[in-house]
Design goal:
The complex is a heterodimer of chains A (253) and B (345).
Chain A (H helix, E strand, L loop, with lengths): L2 H18 L2 H16 L1 H9 L9 H18 L2 H9 L2 H7 L4 H27 L8 H29 L2 H17 L12 H7 L3 H14 L5 H27 L3
Chain B lengths: L1 H8 L2 H12 L3 E12 L6 E12 L3 E5 L6 H8 L7 E6 L2 E2 L4 H7 E4 L11 H11 L4 H14 L15 H12 L6 E5 L7 H16 L3 E6 L2 H7 L2 E6 L2 E6 L1 H7 L3 E6 L5 H8 L6 E7 L2 E6 L2 H14 L6 E5 L3 H9 L10
Parallel strand pairs in B: 3-8, 3-9, 6-7, 7-8
Antiparallel strand pairs in B: 1-2, 1-4, 4-5, 9-10, 11-13, 11-14, 12-13
Helix pairs in contact in B: 5-6, 5-7
The chains are: A mainly alpha (253), B alpha/beta (345).
Amino acid sequence: MNLLKEIGLLTLRCIRASLRNPIFLFMGVITPVIYLAFFTPLLSALAANGSLGVDNVLTLFIPGMLPIIAFSTGIFTGFGMIDDVRSGVLERFRVSPAKRFSILSGPVLFDVCSVFFQSLLFIIIALPFGFRANPLGLLILFVLLALLTIVTSSFGNAMAVILKSEDRYGPVVHGINLPVLLLSGTLLPMTLAPSWLKIIAHFNPVYYVVEASRSLAFGNITSINVLFAFLALIPFVIFTMCWATNVFKKVVT
Amino acid sequence: MALKVALKKLTKNKMVYIIIAAMKTEYAVILSNVHKTFSGRKEPVLALQGVDLEVPKGEVFGFLGPNGAGKTTALRILTTLLPFERGEAYVAGIDVKRNPQDVRRCIGYVSQKGGADSYATGWENLVLQGRLYGLNQQNAITQAESLVNTFFLKECIHRLVSTYSGGQRRRLDIALAMMHQPKILFLDEPTNGLDPQSRDNLWSKILELKQAGITIFLTSHYLDEVDALSDFLAIMDHGKIVATGTPSILKKQISGDIITIGVPKSFHDHAISLFADKKDFLREISSEGGELRLHVDMGASALPQILRLLDNANIQFETIQMSVPSLNDVFLKKTGRFLREGATQ
């Protein structure tokens, strides 16, 4: 059976389940909106004294938040997979001739769809606050967001299959989520950071996506930041997908 | 002569391989000297220690053993879910190690957990399952409709699986495993946690599937279930097969029938001396509390003789009871303990 058909069927399964409880799709946007409402006023104070180098903080903050939506949607996806492990759904799929790559890719592709939906919704919510972005830049940004989601969702799903319980999975992903968020430059730009922190941030792939995201929203499509983001993500995409497929092949559930 | 020399040249392992090659089309399932070790926290756990097993086609095979005996491990190996170190495993004549993808196409598997997606309807579960096995949408729908009728799922099929009763859920689980019309169906503890009525219902469904020519490989720790359903069974304990045979042959290995007589303790010595030379029908006699337990070859012919002896000796008894050995007695004899006590780890 055709690989794409398999992936399509398994993605459709996740879409159906999520449309039964659409409230959770909207929940994903609540955290970024809270940041928008309660955090950007703090940034505005900094912007007023010139520390940030921009007039409208939203052109800094909104594009920075989009990679975080992608990152956390992917990394917290494993809670759903733990459910599939526990109910035996994963085992049933693994006894079928469906390719292990498809079994992984179904939920991953769903997360990409979900990130697109949440990002669009967040941008629409930000428009009345005065946020404006370059449309072509946003289009390229969405490709970056898809790649980032593939990395974190593959990782999250594979970790869920390995750890098999919320009690163990929760601390692991929360432990990863916070430093990645702080070192991404989303909340405050890394230009404010001391040099040692800047150096650490350069090891965080999300940092490059945040930088590229800002360039793209400004309309600097040919910015070197965009190239860096693709270069940082593509090896991660290949590595995590191979590793996660292998986990789905071998793991004992 | 040349053949003899040629055979001599073959190593023992190669011989085993040739014999397996000849057998593998005859049997639905073959395990040959299969070993599986899990890396435990302190020391490795030897889950399977050289398991040999042949299951004939078209029969219901019962796999019996306490929890932790290795039944599920063996099942996982056969259903391609678990790699194993040593030995050979064939399902429907296909090498599980080399060709897992082909094995998957011809088996159905219902795990202990079931495997239906609670957040979808039964119907969506069935159609997706069919599509994953390569049926097109139309064929998947046709097959799902026929299984909905077979497994009496009509009233609930368009509801979310999370609303199903235990019995409905189990029937859906089995229907899912039947979507691609497998030749061999693996059921891991299929009636665990079901009420008696749902259990009887499921038993008759399993026998219907057998009538349709499907080999059924069933694990259970319910003795009556294996006794009622299986044509052939194996008892597993501590990662080894300790007995195989039909339920009746295994039970016959235990002393014919058991006669229990309620007699006051004071008469026991006298009674035992009465039976001392009756080797023609009696195998063994033991005194336990207020009861004498007599293991006899044939209960029906032994009983009148026993009654006559007791009557002639003027020994008054309160109760007398004859029972056939159960699989529990078989289990007790083979493993040294009752199934219910579970495996000592």
